[in-house]
Write a structure and sequence with these properties.
The structure is a single chain. By secondary structure, this protein is an alpha/beta fold. The radius of gyration is 22 Å and the shape is globular. It is 43% helix and 16% strand. The chain has 2 domains: 147 residues, Aspartate Aminotransferase, domain 1; 272 residues, Aspartate Aminotransferase, domain 2 (3-Layer(aba) Sandwich), CATH 3.40.640. The chain has a 7-stranded mixed beta sheet, sandwiched between helices. Strands 11, 12, 13, 15 and 16 form a 5-stranded antiparallel beta sheet that branches. Strand 2 and strand 3 form a beta hairpin. The protein contains 17 helices and 16 strands. It binds pyridoxal-5'-phosphate. Pyridoxal-5'-phosphate (PLP) binds next to helix 6. It comes from Vogesella alkaliphila. Pfam families: Aminotran_3 (PF00202). Keywords: Aminotransferase, Pyridoxal phosphate, Transferase. This is Aspartate aminotransferase family protein.
Length: 459
């Protein structure tokens, strides 16, 4: 593609007019942005012609990979036929009906209904309104409180940011809103030293029960968690955690909600993350992989009992102008169909996922300052540590992570630092050869990183 402007011009215009999300604008404008101009498969190119391996699938969303030719065709046809119509006033359209039918097919049994949004944050906010409405209809309007987890990420709207457990987000804008409380995350490495995984999973689940009892079960509406905490640093709970959380939620008559915005649509090798962990939520939120980022769209899946209860309540006074947008729905349909019919999710489960996990552990476990090497499917991480023997983390959490992340960037590999967790979640179409390439580059970077730690006297 030919562009009219130079990188310098773009940088100047970006600095002049564009406010970036989650960004220190002053410091960014001093450095200048990196302009990404095109992409294909698992690779991005910047305006200087550098080829970059995207080990993060954008923001954990481009599951099907970049540069598909069929999805833009679908979008073009849909725009020509029916660019927009709403679904509020007793109307529907073929694109949203087809998508809903397909989603009910790929969802686990009992999830035959979806509500559409434009993003993960909107899916979470929709879910918050839904669970509160659910208990109203059930005649228990005092059940209002939602329990989230510290270090969880549920988006950046007021509801999503409140439910999430990012304290640096809570600090801005008086969050969380009332009716949202948090429990500690199931991070074995930090909070379960000396315990077996099974023991720690049960202990972490007991924190949920403690919180229910503290608030009063008659006041708790739902417990909400990501099957694997994504932005929190790929925190994978022990196998005992989710089944025990499920048992506790059933015991106290509390809705169980999985935020599947990252785990959904094949990331773990299952269609949805809760299938990986063997539990069944009542509601689960999605976005990201639903359209692989080709269009903004999210969906809240509700089980048939929740759907029937909401239906029994008459009007649910909630929705968006673009709920079930025809173009987004058509593109999501083509994306989900391809993830299924081209065997992409199945390959993550049987082939590329296990291969990545084996190679990831072999490659990084040997490093002196790397521990807790972990992952499932095509979501993986390790933690940078000061001392492995005593499981001691670095001081100034996050500083070393950024230093490490910058080395990856410099070598044409995008991985993310979440604090001192280094995480990766590439497009699901990554081949075994490309996995080898990702790992080889990352290993080279880690050698440079450990060298720099020594030179700077940091370890
Ligand atoms: C990204 C994310 C969200 C927010 O999605 P947006 O599309 O950015 O609003 C919510 N929950 C989880 C688990 C996420 O990873």
């Amino acid at each position: 593609m030919k562009h009219q402007r130079s990188t310098a011009q773009w940088r100047e215009m970006d600095a002049a007019h564009h406010l970036h999300p989650f960004t220190d604008t002053a410091s960014l404008n001093e450095q200048g942005v990196r302009m990404i101009t095109h992409a294909d498969g698992i690779y991005l190119w910047d305006s200087e012609g550098n080829k970059i391996l995207d080990g993060m699938a954008g923001l954990w969303c481009v599951n099907i990979g970049y540069g598909r030719k069929d999805l833009p065709e679908v979008a073009k046809r849909q725009m020509e036929e029916l660019a927009y119509y709403n679904t509020f006033f007793k109307t529907s359209h073929p694109a949203v009906v087809e998508l809903s039918h397909l989603l009910a097919e790929v969802a686990p049994k009992g999830f035959d209904h979806v509500f559409y949004t434009n993003s993960g944050s909107e899916s979470v906010d929709t879910m918050i309104r839904m669970v509160r409405r659910y208990w109203d209809v059930k005649g228990k309007p005092e059940k209002k409180t939602l329990i989230g987890r510290w270090n969880g990420y549920h988006g950046s709207t007021i509801g999503g940011a409140s439910l999430g457990g990012m304290s640096y987000m809570h600090e801005q804008g008086d969050l969380p809103i009332p009716g949202i409380v948090h429990v500690q995350q199931p991070w074995h490495y930090k909070y379960g030293k000396g315990m077996s995984a099974d023991e720690f999973g049960k202990l972490a689940a007991s924190w949920v029960e403690d919180k229910i009892l503290e608030v009063g079960a008659d006041k708790v509406a739902a417990f909400v968690g990501e099957p694997i905490q994504g932005a929190g640093g790929v925190i994978i709970p022990p196998a005992t955690y989710w089944p025990e959380v499920e048992r506790i939620c059933r015991k106290y008559d509390i809705l169980l909600v999985a935020d599947e915005v990252i785990c959904g649509f094949g990331r773990t090798g299952h269609w949805f993350g809760h299938q990986q962990f063997g539990f069944t939520p009542d509601i689960f939120t999605t976005a990201k992989g639903l359209s692989s980022g080709y269009m903004p769209i999210g969906a809240v899946f509700v089980n048939n009992e929740v759907a029937a209860t909401l239906a029994a309540g008459g009007d649910f006074n909630h929705g968006f102008t673009y709920s079930g947008h025809p173009v987004a729905a058509a593109v999501a349909h083509a994306n989900v169909k391809a993830l299924r019919d081209e065997g992409i999710v199945a390959a993550v489960h049987e082939d590329t996922g296990p291969y990545m996990q084996k190679r990831w552990r072999e490659a990084f476990s040997r490093f002196e300052h790397v521990d807790d090497v972990r992952g499932v499917g095509l979501i993986q991480a390790f933690t940078l540590v000061k001392d492995k023997a005593s499981q001691t983390l670095f001081d100034n959490w996050g500083e070393i992570g950024l230093m490490c992340r910058d080395i990856f960037f410099k070598h044409g590999l995008i991985m993310r630092a979440c604090g001192d967790h280094i995480v990766s979640a590439p497009p699901l179409i990554i081949s075994k050869d490309q996995i080898d390439e990702l790992i080889a580059t990352a290993v080279k970077c880690m050698e440079i990183f450990e060298q720099q730690l020594k030179e700077r006297g940091l370890a």
